[in-house]
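Researcher: We're teaching a course module on how sequence relates to structure. For the next exercise, students receive a sequence and then see the predicted structure as tokens, so they can try to spot secondary structure elements on their own. Here is the exercise chain.
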Amino acid sequence: MKKWSFALLSIMLIAVLAACGNNKDSDSGADNAGGAPRTVELKVGASPTPHAEILESIKPELEAEGIRLQIVTFNDYVQPNQQLEDKQLDANFFQHQPYLDTENKERGFHLVAVTPVHVEPFAGYSKKIKSLDELKDGAKVAIPNDPSNGGRGLLLLAKEGLITLKDNTNITSTIQDITANPKNLNIIELDAAMMPRQLDEADLVFINANYALEANLNPEKDALLIEDLQGNPYANILVSREDNKDADAIQKLAAALHSEEVKKFIKDRYQGAVEPAF
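Model: And here is the predicted structure for the students to work with:
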């Protein structure tokens, strides 16, 4: 009886030790097939165009490195940062540094830029006029209602001499900073996502390039006035939180977004409407 009890205890001990060994392999990221790395899922929020398209192009490369990229698309500029702050996302890719700075300051977020990826020229469009010379007194002009992008529109108007600002270099200028408006332009502020729909209403509409591309507008070909890309401070950036910016998966994503393949993808697909920032 004692021999059978000893034998049974020995078998149970071996089974427990084997289970512990298997758990150790699992925790280290190896599987039972011989040590293959464990797949990590990375959830990234992005605007549909061009951000999500760029991310889609690097999925195979990241998959080979053990990272399964899940892209969540947003049609607004509010939810991607809120969900990243709330840890529903691991990163996002849709904004430039001035916008991120405003979000962190006004909404108390703890988000950080990881790396710049591309530049989208901000521009003014119209269905009603073919040149700025045709812009009449009292014309309706639509700009985005967030400080950084609204400021971009005002700076372009100031550059063309259509208005004067307190400081023509202040990228967060608002309509309260206008000191002269000789044409009495009726400048209205609306959500950036609504800008393309204003083309049937307003005489001049300032549209972020991602929304312009979705509306089949090419900044280089269709705009009446456009930002200079040289020295442009509005490079679109990969963004994460302070607590995960140095994570291996985030750094691999950043490296993939700086590859020669991505540079070629941007140049070939967008033909000057989007330019690499690296």
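Model: If you want an answer key for the exercise: The longest strand covers residues 111-119. The CA atoms of residues 66 and 164 lie 53 Å apart.
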